[in-house]
Amino acid sequence: MSRIQARATAANRERYQHDEVAGYLTDPYHRRRLELAITVLAKHLRPGRTVVDLGANEGQACSALAGRGFRPIACDIVPDARRAARDRGLLAVGLDAGAALPFRTASLDGILAGEIIEHLYDPASLLRECGRVLRPGGVVVITTPNLATAQDRLRFLLGRSPRQVDPFHEYLSLHIRPFTYELLATGLRKAGLTPKRPLSNYVVWRTRRGEIRSAWAARRWPTLGGSLIVAAVR
Exposure of 17 by Cβ count < 10 A (0-12 exposed, 13-18 middle, 19+ buried)? Predict the structure, then answer.
């Protein structure tokens, strides 16, 4: 692992192992993102299939996967997170998503990679590993913040930086690899995966008085939405 990659991994471990993560999915924005991702998995896979959740934290998403009939495996780099997942009755595995995945070739039915690829120094390595460990017909569902949201397209035209590349933001500074749908789809194809049409949770417009969120607009124009939700088949 390079020194820069190691520093990125350490920064993410430090930021995302504290109590604030526990309430992450209480926000309707992220709840809808996760619900859409799991629904996409359910459309591609039958109940009983094995699905790993990369960056599972304490297993919240895995509990939702189990509720849909899947056999989830909670994967996280932080030992305390894995212990909490096991306390939920989940199988938990330690891994670094920026390194080789500890699974046999063609051994998994599905992968959920929620809000993790933007944190990786080498996202191409993760996509190749997903292609390696998935069985033929298996599916990976990736969610990641959208670099080209409706508001950020306007911001760029006005000479302002998109929100996702703010190096001084409290947590966005750890999003070192922002994606548009086309860029992510290109990476998936290079990894031997076939991307499907994207989905999104909300088109968001931020004002001084708060946020305006539209699920309808996200269904109509997903590439303008806040989160990209992209399935790709092996």
Answer: middle
Q: Would you list the domain boundaries of the chain?
A: 3-233
- pLDDT per residue as tens digits for the range 126-147: 999 999 999 999 999 999 999 9
Architecture of domain 3-233: 3-Layer(aba) Sandwich (3.40)
**pLDDT category, 171, cuts 50, 70, 90?**
confident
| Residues 122-129: contacts with CB under 8 Å, at least 24 apart | 122/5, 122/98, 123/177, 123/187, 124/187, 124/190, 124/191, 125/98, 125/99, 126/54, 126/97, 126/98, 127/187, 127/188, 127/190, 127/191, 127/193, 128/191, 128/192, 129/100, 129/101
137: helix, strand or coil: strand
What letter would DSSP give residue 26?
A: G
Token digits for 94?
Answer: 């330690």
What 3-state class would DSSP assign to 106? coil
DSSP state of 147: T
Q: How far from 13 is each of 10, 24, 75, 81, 234, CA to CA, in Å?
A: 5, 16, 14, 11, 30
Measured between alpha carbons, how far apart are the two ends of the chain, in Å? 27
pTM exceeds 0.85, yes or no: yes
Query: CA-based Rg of the chain, rounded to a whole angstrom?
Result: 17
Q: How far is 131 from 123, CA to CA, in rounded Å?
A: 13
Query: Do 97 and 116 contact (CB within 8 A), yes or no?
Result: yes
In whole angstroms, give the CA distance from residue 120 to residue 6.
10
